[in-house]
Amino acid sequence: MKIFKKADEMEIHISFLSMRLAWVFMLLALLVWAWYDFSKYSKLNFAFYIGTVGGIFYWLSTIYYRNKMR
Questions:
Q1: Digit-coded pLDDT (tens) for 45-65
Q2: CA pair distance 56, 39, nearest whole angstrom
Q3: How far is it, in rounded angstroms, from Cα 67 to Cα 69?
Q4: Is 47:41 a contact under the CB 8 Å cutoff?
Q5: Going by C-beta distance under 8 Å and a sequence separation of 6 or more, which residues neighbour residue 53?
């Protein structure tokens, strides 16, 4: 008896949309937190660096996979 079944195309598409929305929410929350701390303490906190690295990683991986698909 299988516990997990293989996802069909619609389930995969829904999962990717959910992951993208969750990623955007987390990135925006980190950047808002960083903006708040910068405006209050006049220094960048760890949330800014996490958000920046996440954005750069997303951008570079998008470029990589678009070039790979050509």
A1: 999 999 899 889 989 998 998
A2: 23
A3: 5
A4: no
A5: none
Which residue is associated with the tokens 């929305």?
21
DSSP characters for the chain? Answer: --SSPPP-HHHHHHHHHHHHHHHHHHHHHHHHHHHHHHHHHSS--HHHHHHHHHHHHHHHHHHHHHHHH-
Distance between CA atoms of 17 and 47, rounded to whole angstroms? Answer: 24
What pTM was computed for the model? 0.71
Residue type, 40: K
Per-residue confidence in pLDDT tens, the chain, 70 aa = 577 788 788 888 898 899 989 999 999 999 999 999 999 999 999 999 998 998 899 899 989 989 988 8
